[in-house]
Design goal:
The strands form five sheets. The protein has a five-stranded antiparallel sheet with strand order 5-4-10-2-14. Strands 1, 3, 6 and 9 form a four-stranded mixed sheet that branches. Strands 11, 12, 13 and 15 form a four-stranded antiparallel sheet that branches. About 14% of the residues have low confidence. The chain has four domains: 95 residues, no CATH class; 122 residues, 2-Layer Sandwich (Tetrahydropterin Synthase, Chain A); 72 residues, no CATH class; 59 residues. It is 35% helix and 28% strand. The radius of gyration is 36 Å and the shape is elongated. It is α+β, with helices and mostly antiparallel strands and 381 residues long. It is built from nine helices and 19 strands.
Length: 381
């Protein structure tokens, strides 16, 4: 292969890194490094010299490694046309790395992340998406850690590699930020700018060892499915907390009392008859006061918002699978249908470890007993 006289790489929108197609270089050749590029001479898998943007004439006095390279046999010398000097060819690879950022790349969670709202303790599915950019900020480190003996490293290859690692880390970063700051998932869209900065900082720590930096990272939206039962419960909990903050505890207790009275009056049977006779009034107020006092006790304990009523959910381990988001009523149906029993492992928020259903006080009444089987028919004589 003939020795080359000009070595350069025209920047394009498809490659981050490019290996010059010829490794036959002669003294006196010109190396052109465009703005935004860095060039490297590589010999035997080892990086020898680095060139920043500019035009260079390849000579032994400006490239120290050439002192050893040009003394290696490489065919015959090439005469420079009578000037009395020879252009001795030598073998070396020339790699170019682009430092221009690739922007407007998209990211999104492929499946919803299951996150527990730190304020209301309800697990809901969360999806997020946004955009980001990639920039090679340490060209030598990038070349040494990722390229190997490839001929080039396309933007698509870098994007696929970065996005895979990025999504694996984002779940944990977002969950940690929400928990650390006590942000309700329903309020997170008001903190997107802050969330974006935290994510970019954490991701850059991850990719620093590859010479890659993430630029312009942004979380555009965090969403939950409106029709999901857990999201409905979460919104109800937030509404109830807002009502207590706005109206105060006493008015909230009164409203709850009226709600109980109205529901009792709608029921048919003895309850309705008692109300019509006036006897149900005291019962309704008693129940309403009890529920109001429950809400009040949460406020007195120092919590800003009370936990929602009857929103406790459970996880059970059945046939080697974890089934979650079950209400107490669903657990009872599982036991009655034989899908689970009192030895089935279960877990709910606040527990450190899984435990048998039989250890949950709320399910003690489901334990098998003699009352589940009719007694013997009496001997009537």
């Amino acid at each position: 292969m003939a020795a080359i006289d000009v070595i350069k790489w025209e920047i394009n929108d498809k490659e981050f890194c490019h290996k010059y197609p010829s490794d036959s270089i002669s003294l006196g050749a010109q190396l052109i490094v465009y703005p935004g590029q860095t060039a490297f001479f590589v010999r035997g898998g080892k990086i020898c010299d680095r060139f920043e943007p500019g035009t260079y004439t390849i000579q032994s006095d400006n490239i120290p490694i050439l002192d050893s390279l040009i003394n290696m046999p490489f065919g015959s010398a090439v005469n420079d046309g009578g000037a009395g000097k020879s252009k001795s060819p030598f073998k070396a690879e020339v790699w170019f790395v682009s430092g221009i950022a690739r922007l407007d790349l998209k990211w999104g969670t492929p499946v919803a992340i299951q996150l527990e709202d730190p304020r209301y303790n309800i697990i809901v599915p969360v999806s997020a998406f946004g955009q980001y950019g990639i920039k090679i900020n340490e060209p030598r480190l990038f070349l040494e850690t990722l390229i190997g003996n490839m001929q080039s490293f396309t933007i698509g290859q870098v994007e696929a590699y970065v996005k895979g690692k990025m999504l694996a880390h984002l779940n944990g970063i977002i969950a940690h930020k929400i928990t650390e700051d006590g942000i309700s998932i329903l309020d997170i869209n008001s903190r997107l700018a802050e969330m974006s900065g935290v994510c970019q900082e954490a991701l850059n720590r991850t990719f620093a060892s590859y010479g890659i930096s993430i630029v312009g990272f942004s979380v555009i939206s965090v969403s939950v499915p409106d029709d999901d039962p857990s999201v409905v419960r979460l919104k109800e909990a937030k509404d109830m907390a807002a009502r207590i903050r706005i109206t105060g505890r006493d008015i909230y207790q009164m409203e709850r009392s009226y709600d109980v009275l109205e529901k009792a009056a709608e029921n048919e049977g003895n309850g309705g008859q008692m109300l019509s006779m006036g006897a149900g009034l005291g019962v309704g107020i008693g129940v309403g006061n009890t529920m109001g006092n429950m809400a009040g006790s949460y406020l007195e304990s120092g919590l800003q918002t009370p936990p929602p009523v009857f929103n406790k959910t459970y996880y059970v381990y059945v046939d080697g699978q974890q089934i979650g988001g079950l209400s107490a009523e669903a657990i009872m149906q599982y036991v009655k249908s034989g899908k689970t029993d009192m030895s089935t492992l279960a877990w709910t928020s606040g527990m450190q470890n899984w435990a048998a259903l039989g250890t949950f006080p709320e399910f003690n009444h489901l334990a098998a007993s003699d009352t589940d089987v009719p007694p013997p028919v009496p001997d009537v004589k």
